[in-house]
């Protein structure tokens, strides 16, 4: 059965470009799910037109539709849009999501969904009151590589009993040479490594050490450390240790001061271990499983050509077609769980944003 979903794209930056690339490639491949980009919402009309041109959105790859460029409010009010993808910085998400929901739009909102758990709870409550689908765009959870790794490790138990996970997302941002007004350093923009990229190591610990999500999650405790920059007062280096009640440990790290290791994931079991590699630790496409007994490693590569956003987009299209208001892979309760952990980490380390007050 063909499903058609009419998208509004809010924000004309790089992340939105990557998202749209996947939608159009899926259309060109004549997939059963038709993703129609109907509107580009941004603060500048020329920027929107440049976005359409740069991303080669045409009638031929967009089911006969050339998107309109609209202001945010015009996008909220557009009756020809089913769902809005919010690809702006996270300090804008709350206000923009409220605008989308009040305009009766479903919402896919980039991570972190909000600055804190309190704001996320507000948006989920509004979405439910409007009977609209809402999901945090934790795209990593939907990758075939993640599903394949979980299948090998937990269903087939190829590395035996799993005991420990190392996960890192770090890159060298040359922070000291950036102005404090930079998105990487500006505390008023909720800058810092944890919210921007540290959410991914946390997500991997949830995916690879727990087969339950949200309210059903396996109980855990954690300890954390942050190094706050003396000038901009946000974290550019953070470390977290998690212990699940079944004894499994996760050692998680994130930094904007140094490049991370090539194998950004290492999942260790009694019979072997798994490593994951990527140009972007959020983009789970390639893993190898190694065995202590010297057997040939198992290797998996996603060579689909997609950036990876298509997997969550297709899942959402099916959910909305089925009349669901949230997704089983990343339900509202799972987003609130992770947001709550990040709130507590920041509280323990003295990192407070304006939105927390």
TrEMBL record:
InterPro entries on file: Gfo/Idh/MocA-like_OxRdtase_N, Gfo/Idh/MocA_domain, GFO_IDH_MocA-like_dom, NAD(P)-bd_dom_sf
UniProt keyword Oxidoreductase present: yes
Entry keyword set: Oxidoreductase
Domain Gfo/Idh/MocA-like oxidoreductase N-terminal: 5-135
Catalytic function, reaction form: D-xylose + NADP(+) = D-xylono-1,5-lactone + NADPH + H(+)
Gene3D superfamilies linked to this entry: Dihydrodipicolinate Reductase, domain 2, NAD(P)-binding Rossmann-like Domain
Family as reported in the entry's similarity comment: Belongs to the Gfo/Idh/MocA family.
The protein's name: D-xylose 1-dehydrogenase (NADP(+), D-xylono-1,5-lactone-forming)
Species annotation: Spathaspora passalidarum (strain NRRL Y-27907 / 11-Y1)
Upper lineage: Eukaryota, Fungi, Dikarya, Ascomycota, Saccharomycotina
């Amino acid at each position: 059965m063909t499903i058609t979903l009419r998208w509004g794209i809010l924000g004309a930056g790089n992340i939105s470009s990557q998202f749209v690339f996947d939608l159009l490639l899926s259309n060109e491949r004549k997939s059963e799910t038709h993703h129609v980009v109907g509107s580009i919402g941004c603060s500048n009309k020329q920027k929107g037109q440049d976005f359409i041109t740069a991303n080669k959105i045409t009638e031929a790859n967009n089911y006969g539709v050339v998107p309109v460029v609209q202001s945010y409010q015009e996008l909220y009010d557009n009756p020809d849009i089913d769902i809005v993808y919010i690809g702006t910085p996270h300090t804008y998400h709350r206000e923009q999501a409220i605008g989308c929901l009040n305009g009766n739009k479903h919402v896919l909102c980039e991570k972190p969904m909000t600055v804190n758990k309190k704001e996320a709870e507000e948006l989920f409550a509004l979405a439910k009151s409007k009977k609209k689908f809402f999901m945090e765009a934790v795209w990593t959870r939907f990758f075939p590589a993640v599903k394949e790794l979980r299948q090998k490790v937990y269903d087939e138990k190829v590395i035996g009993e799993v005991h420990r996970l190392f996960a890192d997302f770090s890159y060298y941002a040359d922070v000291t040479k950036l102005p404090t007004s930079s998105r990487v350093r500006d505390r008023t923009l909720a800058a810092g490594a944890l919210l921007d990229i540290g959410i991914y190591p946390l997500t991997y610990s949830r995916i690879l050490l727990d087969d339950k999500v949200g309210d059903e999650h396996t109980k855990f405790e954690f300890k954390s450390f942050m190094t706050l920059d003396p000038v901009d007062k946000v974290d550019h280096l953070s470390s977290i240790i998690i212990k699940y009640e079944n004894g499994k440990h996760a050692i998680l790290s994130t930094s904007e001061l140094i490049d991370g290791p090539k194998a950004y994931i290492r999942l260790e079991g009694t019979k072997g271990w798994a490593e994951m590699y990527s140009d972007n630790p959020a983009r789970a496409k390639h893993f190898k499983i190694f065995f202590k007994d010297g057997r040939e490693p198992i290797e998996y590569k996603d060579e689909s050509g997609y950036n990876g956003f298509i997997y969550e987009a297709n899942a959402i299209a099916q959910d909305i077609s089925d009349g669901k208001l949230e997704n089983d892979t990343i339900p509202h309760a799972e987003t609130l769980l992770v947001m709550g952990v990040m709130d507590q980490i920041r509280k323990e380390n003295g990192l407070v944003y304006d939105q927390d007050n």
